[in-house]
Design brief:
Shape: rod-shaped
Number of strands: 4
Helix content: 55-70%
Order of helices and strands: HHHHEEHHHHHHEEH
CATH class of one domain: Mainly Alpha
Strand content: 5-15%
Number of helices: 11
């Protein structure tokens, strides 16, 4: 009898094992969703609540709900959702001084994103700013050398300017002195020429025996001599007490008074004068003129026409000619 063939088959593998053994040909799909930007405005009620939060940072739920125009419950729910997403932060209110609970406040969360374009621009700007050179001892020494050289240059320039100004002032002073000397020489020359003419005229009168012209010529000589002294700016030098050699003050040389009085009376024949009137004309004292007139009247060189007041006039031609020599000799020593 033939043996029976064993037809028992092995049990099938579990489905799980088959599935495991099967190669996994599926590929994972990458997550391409990105988190919303922190500055993007949400849609729907969250958007209006977000606008209210940004417009009222630190506001409470009633303030935000009123600004958003939604119910307080809706505003609080959206605020919680925004806080969960990190767009807003909630600050607990705590309790006040009276122990009562204070409402929480809500504000936009700080923006922690970095603007790479702005950062790059700032980095580029910083890179283009030139760095200041380091201050070294050599640089300081060079700066000090330049400053010292400038100070020396200024001192030299100032000295040159002062020297030029002094030379110019000396030149001008010399020119002015030369002009003053030339002016003095010219004035003195003219005065001497006038004096020479007066001397010549008086000398001719003396030679001719003309007493009136002689007296007038002497008066002119006195005047021109004074002009020479003024033009030459040289005054007469007189010594002091005998033997001392001291120089006295400048004053006019003494002049005979009687010839001047005779000349004045002769120049106005027929007119009567008081001693004061003649003194005013001659620039002499009235007392000296009165004394001179009395002497001239005694010598016949003047005629007393009135005693009170005393008036004098020139004598007639015949009387003057007869007494001229005597009167002149008597008057030579009168210098009052």
């Amino acid at each position: 009898m033939a043996a029976k063939k064993n037809t028992v088959t092995a049990p099938a593998a579990p489905a799980a094992d088959i599935a495991t053994a099967t190669p996994d040909t599926t590929t994972a799909t990458p997550d391409t969703t990105t988190a919303p930007a922190s500055t993007a405005r949400p849609d729907g009620p969250a958007g209006v609540v977000w606008d209210a939060v940004t417009a009222n940072p630190g506001g409470t739920v009633p303030v935000i709900a009123n600004a958003a125009g939604v119910a307080r419950a809706v505003a609080k729910a959206e605020l919680i959702a925004l806080a969960t997403s990190g767009r807003v932060v909630c600050t607990p209110g705590g309790r006040g001084d009276n122990g009562r609970a204070l409402p929480d406040t809500w504000a936009p969360a700080p923006d922690t994103t970095i603007d790479t374009a702005t950062a790059s621009t700032a980095d580029a700007a910083e890179a283009t700013v030139p760095q200041a050179p380091a201050v070294t001892a050599e640089a300081i020494a060079e700066a000090m050398r330049i400053m010292q050289a400038e100070a020396d240059r200024r001192a030299a320039a100032e000295a040159d300017l002062q020297k030029a100004m002094a030379e110019e002032e000396a030149r001008r002073a010399k020119v002015l002195a030369d002009l003053a000397r030339a002016r003095t020489a010219e004035d003195t020359r003219r005065a001497l020429a006038d004096l020479l003419a007066a001397v010549t005229t008086a000398y001719a009168a003396v030679v001719a025996g003309d007493q009136v012209a002689t007296v007038a010529g002497l008066e002119r000589i006195y005047a021109e001599a004074n002009n020479v002294r003024k033009a030459s700016k040289v005054g007469p030098v007189r010594t002091g007490a005998k033997g001392t050699g001291a120089v006295r003050a400048d004053r006019a040389a003494p002049r005979p008074l009687r010839p001047e009085v005779v000349a004045h009376l002769s120049a106005h024949p027929g007119k009567e004068f008081t001693p004061g009137e003649i003194a005013k004309v001659l620039g002499r004292s009235s007392g000296a003129v009165a004394n001179a007139l009395e002497t001239l009247a005694k010598n016949g060189e003047a005629v007393l026409t009135s005693e009170r007041p005393a008036r004098y006039t020139a004598p007639t031609t015949t009387t003057a000619t007869g007494t001229a020599a005597t009167g002149t000799a008597a008057g030579d020593g009168d210098v009052s």
